[in-house]
Specification:
This protein is mainly alpha-helical and 56 residues long. The protein is built from 2 helices and 2 strands; from the N terminus they run H-E-H-E.
Length: 56
């Protein structure tokens, strides 16, 4: 029983970290870019149009 619990916890951690690695709450265009919101600009997170998960 203890072994099953450990395996389930390990799977939950693995799935939780891999599925949210490329998450973004805002809308992005077909190239994966978008303009910063006013709220993000105020926080200093970005300054304008930028990309997420851009492949090189």
């Amino acid at each position: 029983m203890k072994k099953l619990f450990v395996i389930l916890i390990a799977l939950a951690v693995l799935v939780g970290t891999t599925s949210s690695a490329y998450a973004h709450s805002g809308r992005t265009d077909k190239n994966g870019g978008h303009n910063c919101s006013a709220k993000s600009k105020q926080k200093g997170l970005c300054t304008g149009y930028h990309y997420h998960n851009k492949k090189k």
